[in-house]
Amino acid sequence: MDRRKELKQQYKEMKPDMGVMIIRSKVSNKCFLQATPNLKGTINGTKFKLNAGAHPNRELQKDWKELGEDRFSIEILAQLEYDKDEAKTDYSEELEILQMIWEDKLLKQNMELYKK
Predict the structure, then answer these.
(1) Which of 29, 31, 36, 56 could bond to 42 as cystine, CB 3.0-4.6 Å?
(2) In this predicted model, what pLDDT tens digit does every residue of 17-29 receive, in sequence order?
(3) Structural domain boundaries in the chain
């Protein structure tokens, strides 16, 4: 197999990191959580949407526009490991549970969540 085909095959077999990300306001105690099967892609897409004024969460979008990007931090809270069973491809239920766990943790720390 030539190098190009080999690289294409490697790319197809790559599994993106999945888990829960948080956008946290440095000004208030508000935060936005999102569970995703592709953390890097979601973080990049979210930043792009916020900077373009097109994020679906209007409240977060408004604060981002008024306060500026430097008043927020974007972090990965938790990563979900892939199952050893290669046949499993749908992790939506596990991601939903992981997000609920983090929502509970943050609420107990008196953090306020942006409404969905």
Answers:
(1) 36
(2) 999 999 999 999 9
(3) 18-113
